Amino acid sequence: MEEARSKDEARAAEVASLIKDTRAYLCIDCSKCTGSCPIGKAGSVYSPRLLVQHLVLDGRDPSETEVWRCLTCGLCRERCPSDVDFPRFISRLRATALIDGNLPQTTHGGTFQELMRIQANERLRQNKMDWLPEWVNARGADDLDGSTEDVYFVGCAPYFDVVFADFDLDLKGTHEAALELLKATGLNPVVLRDERCCGHDALWSGDVELFRKLAGRNLEMFKAAGVKRLFVSCPEGYHTFAHEYPAHLGELGFEVINTVKYLADNPPPGFDMEGDTNTGTRPKAGGVVEADGAGDGGAVTCGAAADASTRPEEVTYHDSCRMGRFSGIYDEPRKMLAMTRGVTLKEMEFTRAQAPCCGSNLWINCDSLSKKMQMELLEEARKTGAGVMLTACDKCRIHLACALMQNGHVSDGLKTDNILRFLYRKGVRKT
Amino acid sequence: MADFEPRIVAFACNWCSYAGADLAGVSRLQYPPNIRTIRVMCSGRVSPGHIIRAFEHGADGVFVSGCHINDCHYGFGNRWAEKQIEKTLKLVEMLGIEPDRLKLEWISASEGEKFATSIRTFVERIKELGRSPLQR
Ligand code: SF4
Ligand code: SF4
Ligand code: SF4
Ligand code: FES
């Protein structure tokens, strides 16, 4: 009894303070964002305002609200006139629901939650890096001497490749490409064999304790390695290291660098660098932006006509939430595409901060609404006429591939690719 | 590590393997007491997550058993299990856990003897391997 009461009190206090901190009470009179929330749009009665009303006016417990529904996509935050950070609000609210043992419905039998949890184990020594390019120096947790300044973080792609083998996405290829592209700029980043999950999903699912554990293990390892610059390609990982680690654990003592951003600032040979390449993109009618393929100077010179890499190719680009709305990286991928010969970027109707959500997040709560969002996003991409939809987020690619598989056919041959894999193939490997 | 007694989680499907384990019991067949059995409706219900969780919670080995192929009471559950275990073996290895610590066996309701021998062999193998790397 005693314990139950103090638990209730702790929860009530936390709910009250998070409503105050995020000023979510402003929602009650508002609802401006409801129209932009993809969940409502896909056909559920879900509304951020309603959720706050249930909490504040109706006095419901967090577990009695739709606390697991939100995708934390951040579209509402773009619309909010009161600067309420709803995704942040919901992730803190989730922590209070967890106190009651109110757990989200996990997808894939909880496999990813367990993969996350086991990575917090101190004794874990992993074998997930056997695919690395030969030149990459990979070091285990017991082999760190403070001399590895540039470190590349791979993340969960090797695990995803196993679970989603049927989708044939080659997610490790993203990191192979990233490492090769970084090498082409003159870097020689080291990979840490025993890096842990960054903790992104744990954090946004309200499991702050697990997040802190994972972050602690990573930071300990980075410190032992002597990291000065951490290169990250996964948008979730990048945002987590760059923004959430400092927010939760204080000053990092090293720089977190997004790979695409770094490449845009330091283009490797093979990408045309004629003047300011940003001026090489010119918006055309219908929002189509075309890459200016002209200009020599780059390393792509020999037999351009016969070179498969310079064959004209139309692509579209999806701004994933963690890359775009959360990290503000919109121009850099476009700049890289503009610097890639023979590539035309055909923009979708909703891009950048307005880009739609891929419909699934955190490996929880995936349902028919998710499928609907995924099919709609693919349809938007298809409308551009591009043959491939690029994105920086490989989780988006997984969910989208899943939508296509479930409908039993790969509609109109629209493929997805990771932008780094694509850039590597077009600009460096040239196949 | 002569006195090492492995802790093993054994998932058994309700219709065949759990009955097989029962039969081993009522037939008074001897098998080592190292297993904690978890009954599931079908081997197809066991996800990689359950197995990883068992290792995270201290298991030295995980044993999954179901009906023989074509005998699954839900049709294709054990075929799905086969595929899942194949993936899980890879995941487990990437997590630095010896793949031999995970074993899939088809055991029917009438195979009490097979249940007992499989467990004996598995426990022997785990004893050779020693404590799980996550517990050492
Ligand atoms: S999050 Fe902002 S836009 Fe949405 S209901 Fe609350 S105050 Fe209004
Ligand atoms: S973060 Fe996205 S899914 Fe969540 S309430 Fe806002 S718009 Fe809806
Ligand atoms: S959309 Fe994503 S989360 Fe949902 S079932 Fe498919 S892969 Fe899993
Ligand atoms: S019911 Fe036994 S394996 Fe499916």
User: What is the first-to-last residue Cα distance of chain B?
Assistant: 12 Å
Radius of gyration of chain B: 14 Å
> For the largest beta sheet of chain A, what order do the strands appear in spatially?
1-3-2-4-5
What can be said about the biggest beta sheet of chain A?
5 strands, parallel
Question: Low-confidence parts of chain A, pLDDT < 50 over ≥5 residues?
Answer: 275-307
Chain pair forming the biggest interface: A-B, 23 and 19 residues
Radius of gyration of chain A: 22 Å
Shape summary of chain B: globular
The average pLDDT score of chain B comes to: 95
**Which oligomeric state applies?**
heterodimer
- Give the tally of β-strands of chain A: 11
Please, how many helices of chain B?
A: 4
How many helical elements of chain A? 16
In short:
Chain A is of the alpha/beta class.
Question: Would you mind describing this structure in some detail?
Answer:
The complex is a heterodimer of chains A (431) and B (136). Chain A has 431 residues and is of the alpha/beta class. In chain A, helix 8 (172-184) crosses helix 16 (419-429). Chain A contains 16 helices and 11 strands. Chain A has helices spanning 2-22, 38-41, 48-56, 75-79, 86-99, 111-118, 157-163, 172-184, 200-204, 208-225, 235-249, 259-265, 331-338, 368-383, 394-406, 419-429; strands at residues 138-139, 150-153, 190-192, 229-232, 255-258, 281-283, 289-291, 313-318, 343-345, 388-391, 415-418. In chain A, the strands form 3 sheets. A 5-stranded parallel sheet of chain A has the order 1-3-2-4-5. A 4-stranded parallel sheet of chain A has the order 9-8-10-11, with helices on both faces. In chain A, strands 6-7 form a two-stranded antiparallel ribbon. In chain A, a hairpin with a 5-residue loop joins strand 6 (281-283) and strand 7. Chain A has 3 domains: 2-99, Fumarate Reductase Iron-sulfur Protein, Chain B, domain 2 (Orthogonal Bundle); 108-265, no CATH class; 285-429, no CATH class. Chain B has 136 residues and is an alpha/beta fold. Chain B has a single domain, classed as Rossmann fold (3-Layer(aba) Sandwich). Chain B has 4 helices and 4 strands; from the N terminus they run βαβαβαβα. Chain B has a 4-stranded parallel sheet with strand order 2-1-3-4, sandwiched between helices. In chain B, helix 1 links the parallel strand 1 (8-13) and strand 2. Chain B starts with 7 loop residues before the first strand and ends in a 7-residue tail after the last helix. Bound molecules: iron/sulfur cluster (SF4) (3 copies) and FE2/S2 (inorganic) cluster. The site of one iron/sulfur cluster (SF4) has 14 residues of chain A, from helix 3 and helix 4. Residues 13, 15-16, 42-44, 66-67, 72-74, 77-78 of chain B line the site of FE2/S2 (inorganic) cluster (FES).
